[in-house]
């Protein structure tokens, strides 16, 4: 549990997330291009205790973009997730981390109907290709990009959860997910609609700090040394792109 211990041991200094409820750090790669081939292998390399994998089906949904979003690249996304416990529907508004974005999203109201499961105002820190690297070498780890999001989840199907005003319609393809979870760590394998496989490691904390980010950076560096290459696209884009 060397990586988990490292994260747990760091001191919380200047908060990255200000008024956000959570900060989540994430890194994803395609094993076909290198890196750990499975969630279990990634957990072993990082020293994370893994549990029995949970199987999930994830379908992304098309929804009408709401009025009142801040200027910039803000977007509403939605999905339906089904596992052995039944369906879960999620609605998220996400965009670049900014003062205007935080103000608007911190006051957002969940549009979904059904048994409430979770509501989060969260900072997302993701390592991906296409960003300026720390040393200027394009082969090194990109500087992590930061976004802010509001999301809510309810324990019912998308047809029951989304009001007509959202103009929700399911996409035609499904993602098959295997998830390992250990405390605040998640390691997931996603078989995309294109049949490609991606693996994602993420860690969530109540109050993110530069120290937490530095510690997760060490995990990313470990995965890079194992051959993982960061992907250029978001999981939402990858998982919502249906072939044909």
TrEMBL record:
Signal peptide boundaries: 1-20
Keywords: Signal
Top-level taxon of the source organism: Bacteria
The protein's name: Uncharacterized protein
């Amino acid at each position: 549990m060397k990586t988990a211990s490292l994260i747990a041991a760091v001191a919380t200094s200047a908060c990255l997330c200000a008024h956000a409820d959570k900060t989540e750090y994430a890194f994803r790669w395609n094993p076909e291009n290198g890196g750990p081939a499975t969630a279990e292998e990634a957990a072993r390399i990082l020293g994370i205790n893994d549990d029995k994998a949970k199987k999930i089906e994830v379908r992304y949904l098309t929804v009408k973009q709401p009025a009142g979003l801040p200027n910039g690249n803000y977007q509403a996304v939605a999905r339906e997730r089904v596992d052995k416990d039944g369906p879960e529907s999620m609605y998220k508004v996400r965009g670049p981390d900014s003062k205007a974005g935080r103000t608007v999203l911190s006051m957002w109201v969940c549009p979904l109907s059904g048994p409430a499961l979770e509501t989060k105002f969260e900072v997302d820190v993701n390592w991906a290709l296409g960003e300026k690297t720390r040393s200027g070498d394009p082969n090194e780890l990109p500087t992590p990009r930061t976004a802010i999001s509001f999301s809510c989840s309810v324990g019912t199907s998308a047809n029951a959860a989304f009001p007509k005003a959202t103009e929700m319609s399911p996409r035609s393809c499904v993602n098959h997910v295997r998830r390992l979870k250990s405390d605040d760590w998640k390691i997931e394998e996603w078989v995309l609609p294109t049949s490609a496989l991606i693996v994602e490691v993420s860690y969530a904390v109540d109050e993110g700090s530069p120290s937490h980010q530095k510690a997760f950076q060490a995990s990313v560096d470990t995965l890079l040394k194992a051959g993982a290459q960061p992907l250029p696209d978001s999981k939402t884009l990858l998982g919502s792109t249906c072939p044909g």
